[in-house]
User: Fold these one by one.
Assistant:
Number 1:
Amino acid sequence: MKFSLWPNSSRPTTELLNLAQMADADDWYGVWFADHYMSNTGSEAIESGDLHECWAVLPAMAAVTERVRIGSLVAPTSIHHPAVLANRAATIDHISNGRMVLGIGAGWQINEHHAYGIELEDPRERVGRFDEAIQIVRLLLNEDRTDFSGEFYEIIDAPSDPKPVQSPLPILVGTASPRMLRITARHADEWNTWGAPDLAAEGLEKLRVACEQVHRDPASMWKSVQALVFITDDADFAESVREGEMGSRSLVGSIDQLVEEFGRYADLGFDEFIVPDFTLGKTAEERADHLSELRSAI
């Protein structure tokens, strides 16, 4: 199983680029970056704070690295037009010399849509829009010209040049819902989910069912997963995390215990574990030390 990094979007840009370079030097597999404009509150409420923009950071990361994959986790098609996504991804693939992964989803965060006046459609429409968008992105990346007529998009003899270095450029979808999983199984190269091993296993079974429904071999899809990572030898703290609101999406324990948990993902059939740095320390130095410690152990 491969291991990748996911730095918090609130980090200073110098730290973000330093982390990408560290990942490149220390043999991490990839660096992922979230596509959001503000912290999630679960409502229309806004919490102030820095959050750097994904499509400005990704090309910078691509330019200062040589080996790691670079990807969005994930770009909402409720916000981004598919033609914009395809052209951005192809350009970053050239900057990185073939290391870009286009991660997309249907969109979900209430406050950023509300604050910017972007309609967050009901789930049926939002998923329908996504279904059309992923097909258009694939066509634009692969074909000389694209025509598409749907409920949400009308694309007429559209070019998208230059084509990516990779053929095909990988498209990843982050989702857990049955309809989205079927779309993922039809059109995507990679699938991503959240969760500690038990929750991730449930998602993997849902993906298997979706692949069966559309006649796709699930083994043909790259599968990645992430969970919050807490490094601690404090048994009481570890138990409080497991019993907390994010317990089903968290790994907690000593380095040796975490390595055992990573092994469970590999046994389930996951190809990549993505380590968010969100819970790995209050300073850049502490986070870098913990990442180095993890990398040495895995």
Number 2:
Amino acid sequence: MTILTSPLPEDSLLLAELTKISEIDYEQDPAPLQRQGAEAVIDFIADFSADGVVRDKGLVALVLTRLKDLQVRDFALGSVTTESLELYFNAWSWLLRSAPRGFIAPVANLLAAVAYEKGDVALAHRALDRAKNDDLEYALTRLLRQVFSAGWSPNTFAVMREELHPRVCDAIFSGSINP
């Protein structure tokens, strides 16, 4: 396992922040918390872009918790552009290393997608291994493994992003979401 996917030592401050954030209750309207998650991803990337780390443990905890929601995860996946690919690669690598057990799978899948798009198939598979070790049933892990093993063109992700991201944004920010 490379340094890009190796976990950092457990962060007790981050763990404490994680206990303060509830997961989304789908018995209630999830849209406000999904919007909160999308906005947290935007803030996280902005902070990471400025400093190469995110020091706000509350923000990191919020992102990790909200990425468990498929709409928020797909928002994060679709936020990547050709121009920002390296930034997201570095941000997801950093976040994956910081993520405690139970919060790894979504971030590992995000890293796998950008690593594959960058042409680093081996790292993409290692990231999926981390996801599988965290959550055997995480559906995107299986899907990405099939896509990577089939040798799909990395450009496929950019095309899918362009098509799907506007719909995900519309769903999150208009409030018409079905989890």
